[in-house]
Structures are given as C-alpha cells and as structure tokens.
Amino acid sequence: MIASERLKVFWQEVRDGKRPKPERDPNAPTEKLLRCNSSWARDGQIILIIYPHGELGFREPRRRAEYKIGLPEAYRQAVLITTGKINMRVRDLRKHGMRLSEARRKARKELL
Fold first, then answer.
1. What are the residues facing 60 on neighbouring strands?
2. 68 vs 31, 59, 112, CA distance in Å?
3. What is the pTM of this model?
4. Average pLDDT along the chain
5. How far apart are CA 93 and CA 88, in angstroms?
6. Is 68 helix (H, G, I), strand (E, B) or coil?
7. pLDDT (tens digit, 9 = 90+) per residue, 11-38?
C-alpha cells in the first residue's frame, strides 16, 4: 500500500472512531504549504510557519533559509497593501467617471 493510501485509511479510521485522534504539542509551530503568486517564490509555493509566540516564518520548499516577521508587522503590512490596492482601484474608477463615494464603496466591495 502506498503511503498516501495509508494516510487516507488512517484518517478514515480516526473519523470513524476506530483510532484515537493524534495529540498535537501546543507549543509546536504549525506548518502549511501554500501557493504563492510572487516573483520571490521560485516554484510558486512557500511554506508558512506559525509560531505560538507570535511570529510568522516563510521559506521555500527544499530550502533552509527562513524569513520571520512578527504578527504586528505582518498585520500592518497587510493593511497598507490592501489600502493601497483600494486606492488604486478608486483612482481607476474615478477616471471612468464614477463619483468618489460610489468608487470607494465599489472598490471596498471588490477587494475586501
């Protein structure tokens, strides 16, 4: 049996109640493989690591270099980037003759 099939059988047994759910260490970081539409990621994928003490780590698959950022800084960057995208969309809508309040409302609706 292939490893992926064994995993499917294992998790099916956990869902059916035949096996206990594996315990997770609450202080261990959580890793997730994500698709990334960025020129920074060579293969279009990154591994996001969430640390319990409030940091995010990013690294490419099969690479050792990891880049860390604190959650407050990540939140600030997300707000700045989203606000910039909304403002760009408002400018574009204004060029096409839409009123400012309508343009802001539509841009927020599209991007949030």
1. none
2. 13, 9, 26
3. 0.63
4. 93
5. 9
6. strand
7. 999 999 999 999 988 889 999 999 988 8
Q: Which residues pair with 56 in a beta bridge?
A: 50, 69
Percent of the chain surpassing pLDDT 70: 100
> Is the Cβ–Cβ distance between 97 and 110 less than 8 Å?
no
Is residue 102's pLDDT more than 90?
A: yes
Q: Which amino acid does the sequence have at 107?
A: A
Indicate the helix (H) or strand (E) that contains 29: none
Q: Give whole-number Cα distances, 108 to 20, 79, 82, 100, 112, in Å.
A: 45, 13, 10, 12, 6
AA identity, residue 20 = P
Examine the pLDDT at 100 and tell me if it is beyond 90.
yes
How many Cα atoms within 13 Å fall on the side-chain side of residue 62? 5
Which bin fits 96, alpha (ψ -120 to 50), beta or left (φ > 0)? alpha
